[in-house]
Input
Amino acid sequence: MITFDDVVKVYPGGGTAVDHVSLELPTGKTTVFVGPSGCGKTTSLRMINRMISPTSGRVLIDGQDVAGQDEALLRRGIGYVIQHAGLFPHRTVLDNVATVPVLLGKTRREARTAALELLERVGLAPEFAKRYPAQLSGGQQQRVGVARALAADPPVMLMDEPFSAVDPVVREQLHREFLRLQKDLGKTIAMVTHDIDEAIKLGDVVVIFRQGGVVAQVGTPQELLADPADEFVAEFVGRDRGLRSLSFDTAAELPVLPVPAELVLDEAGRPLGWKTGADDVRPTGGTFTSADTLRLVADLAILSPVGIAVRVDADGKADGITPHHDLADYLAARRG
Amino acid sequence: MNLDYLFDAAHWDFSAGSIPQLILSHLWYVLLALAIGTVIALPIGLYIGHTGRGSFIAINAGNAGRSLPTLGLLMLMVTLLGLGLLPVLIALTVLVIPPILTSAYAGLRSLDQRVVDAARGVGMRPWQVLTRVELPMALPVLMSGFRSAALQVVATATVAAAVGLGGLGRLLIDGLAVNDYSRVLAGAIVVAVLAVLLDLVLAFAQRWIVSPGLRVSR
Ligand SMILES: Nc1ncnc2c1ncn2[C@@H]1O[C@H](COP(=O)(O)OP(=O)(O)OP(=O)(O)O)[C@@H](O)[C@H]1O
Ligand SMILES: [Mg+2]
Output
């Protein structure tokens, strides 16, 4: 667990960057710092690995004040993914990833062997190992940055806007891989972003900062969407938070109706489309399974030519339908 | 004026005062001055570049060094210390220090500070940051400073002959003394060729020691 105990940071000649922040970042979970530019997110993050020292207050990792620890040793034990990757341009991808294990006393050989495995883990083919950072795309550099931070298998990871320098499609992909990796590894992660959607998607706990380095609200994504503490948070999490909150629940308990005759199926029972006229069949616009989110169901109901979302089983066979008014009723009942 | 002196086989026989022998003594002064100058200027330049402290020294050293007349300095040193290798080396070293110091400083200052920050962030100690990240990344700039120092000192080491030492300056001074312009021309040509060759060797060394990752065009 990482604890911020009444932490203040005042830059000489600058204003207050972090203002009496007290926080707990649970072990094995991802905590995301989010807020508008200049509100002290990076400053807070860098106080964890002593890249910045607090003006007053303490930062503790598992009860140990970081201020009392050897800077270099502390940092080697904390993975750090830097805004815009921060890779060493004169070192190959492999040697970039091997950096911390070598600092920790591993031989270059051992470190490289392990680094090669890590590259695969973050989705980079082995042929990238011998390349230099300048020969990679932005997304590939981000992956190397993550691999470098993971290399010494640190229990704690700090990530400063790790997915900011890539286009939305690649970001989406990196998000999926991040969630998959974190599910396997269960690191204690502190991540910074100014993208609330990213925070909601990746965070177990989200900390919303406001201007002046003040914490506006701490909570799970669900809590923030359902119950924003004030105007600022409500504004910040956005107007479509009702729709977005549907991302947290699956369609497992959503009731369905039997498949009607208007739904045209192929011989294996897979939906082909809706019969809307004598020989007029329109595509369904997609299907969901009971593991998908309610947001997808809502989306399908809106897209469907007849306002009905189609559920399929694991084999892709149609096994039920949900008209949008049934979905609305279900959501209303769920709200209680 | 002609090339007779240069192409006379008798001047290439390795005897005292022959061209090969003058080249060797010339190179010896050059290498000594470069070595001493590097040992003095590199740490100072790196220190200033790494810490950012005393940058005015690095900036002014460049200007001061360029405006100092080497021959004048040499005469002053001879007056103070008497004849010998020492005053020559001092004068040449003073010539070598500014470009090396300035390039070491500028090389470190021009680095992407986010990368230096990353080096600290992954847990390198200050010395490791300098030797494993800053220095390798600054090498291209550093080498260009070193090469310009080498070129200058090859040309200027001819002053050694003015105070009775060897080196290719002998051809110039002795040639002028006896109105043997063929010999003067030979001296000028050999100095020029030596400068070009030395620069080639250094260019090759640079290719070899600078990481390919820094050569990749972005
Ligand atoms: N070294 C510094 N000296 C003075 N002021 C600083 C320094 N670093 C940051 N600040 C100020 O402290 C405040 C918080 O900065 P910080 O970098 O933590 O913001 P941030 O939330 O990470 O912003 P962004 O989303 O733009 O990265 C800002 O007002 C910034 O101008
Ligand atoms: Mg920031």
Remarks:
- Residues A 41-42, 192 surround magnesium ion (ligand 2) (CB under 6 Å).
